[in-house]
Each structure stands twice: as C-alpha cells, then as structure tokens.
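Is guanine placement plausible here? Inputs below.
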Amino acid sequence: MSARIIDGKALAQRVREDVRERAVALKAKGIVPGLTVVLVGENPASQVYVRNKAAACEQAGMRSRVIGLGADTPEEELLDLIGTLNDDPQVHGILVQLPLPGHIDTGLVIETISAAKDVDGFHISNAGLLMTGRPLFRPCTPYGIMKMLESEDIPLRGAEAVIVGASNIVGKPMAMLLLAAGATVTLCNSKTQDLGAQTRRADVLVVATGRPGIVNGSMIKPGSVVIDVGINRLPEGGLVGDVDFKSAHAVAGAITPVPGGVGPMTIAMLLVNTIEAAERGAAS
Ligand code: GUN
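Reply from A.M.:
I modeled the complex. Tokens:
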C-alpha cells in the first residue's frame, strides 16, 4: 500500500482565496484588514518567514507592514512599540516573529500584545480560551492541520491521536483542538519511553519536533494519517520533515509532504486569523 498525499499547497490556495473574498467585503465597508509583523534582529530563516507572511497578506488584499528592529533593541522599546500597535485601529493583527534575541523576555512580549490582535494565538488568554473550549485565535499551525483533516474527511471522534512534540506553538494547542474534536489524545515529549509503542497506536499522528527522521515507517500504524510539521534544512540543500517520508509513505493511509504540506497551511491560517480579527473589529 502507499499513502495518499495530502496537498497542503492546494488547500492553502483555496483558504487564501476565501480570505481574499472576505477582504473585499470588508473593504466595501471602508475597512482594510491589516497585519503588522515585527522582526527583531537578522535571523535569516525569520527574514524568509516574515517576507512570505507579508507577501501572502498583500496577495489576499490585506495591508501588511513589517517593522524591522535591530538585534540590540532594548526590551522596553519593543514593548512600547507593541503598545502603540495595540492602540492603532488600522492594525487588526500583530505578530512578533520568534525567536527573539536572548535579552528580551519572550513571554512578556507575547503578553503585551492585545489578546484581540494576537493572530498567532500565543497570548496566555488565547491559550486559556482554547483550553476551555472557547477559542478566540487558534495557533496557525494546529489550526491549519485541523483544516487539512477536515478537508480530507478524517474521522476524529473516538480516534486515537498521538502528537510527538509538546511545544506551546504546535503540540499543546494541537492536543486541545484534537481533544475538542473528540479524539483520544496522547502527547509525547522528548522524555517519552519507547516512542514507537505510542506512535504505532495512532490513527492520526502529528509529528512536530524539529528532529528529522524521528518517526519512520516501522513506527506507524498501517493505514493511518501522518501529519509532518517538521521543516528541516539539509546541509546539502533541500528540506525534509520530521518523518522519514519514504518508509512512512509505504505504510500510512495518508501523509503530508515536506515541502507542500503543513507549511503553506500555517501562513493561510494566519490570514484567516487576521481577517477574523478585522471582521470582529468591524462588528463591534
Ligand atoms: N517562529 C516560528 N514559527 C512562528 C510562528 O508561527 N509565529 C511567530 N510569531 N514566530 C514564529
């Protein structure tokens, strides 16, 4: 058997088209949805991500602004900037690209962003709302994965879902979303003993560790759905996920590729969160 490939790029395109139509409707009411991205320092990977986010915003008919600050920007200056953006009615979404330089308290920065503009869904209020089943903004990567599972008609009620990686950005919110959809959720971390014994139980397996090859075909239940969140750059060039694609593809029922799987969905859902923020602002 070989797995069906879940085409994240095609689905992301459909999501982006829907956002574009919603942006047109808002503009007809005189509101131009706007995202401001703040980048501190010159991390090359972050620069690429930020450029892609801004371009996607523009393509969807939204206003995007990138504010670049030097790597030695004092924490106070960044917090002041966020305060100004919080008060600016033309800014519907604020995203501070991570990681931040070591002298800046990342938690404090995230908590300073208005929860109503936190399109990353990282603010502690948004984490709490998600946990209690009343989400305002869902973090983009897990939100995109839920969209993919939905578009593929993957049954989640009563399914065994196993997540490898327990980060605040992916693993933990993913667990909350799958739990809310009725799955039985196992959240594995770097201390998990016999990872394969856990992953082999999964009807839906989500892998988000940043460690290429941490899951291979021998660790996958035949016919299951495998979602690979990893984006790892090879020394010789090219990208691979966290899942060994070749061996996993031979066992799984459906699998996301890298690139072209989860990655495009993350950006698409950022646009969804931004348009939702603007629509809420328009309604209030
Ligand atoms: N760095 C890597 N992924 C992300 C993300 O989703 N949001 C932000 N703000 N920074 C990131």
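Short version: The pocket of guanine is lined by residues 95-98, 120, 140, 169 (CB under 6 Å).
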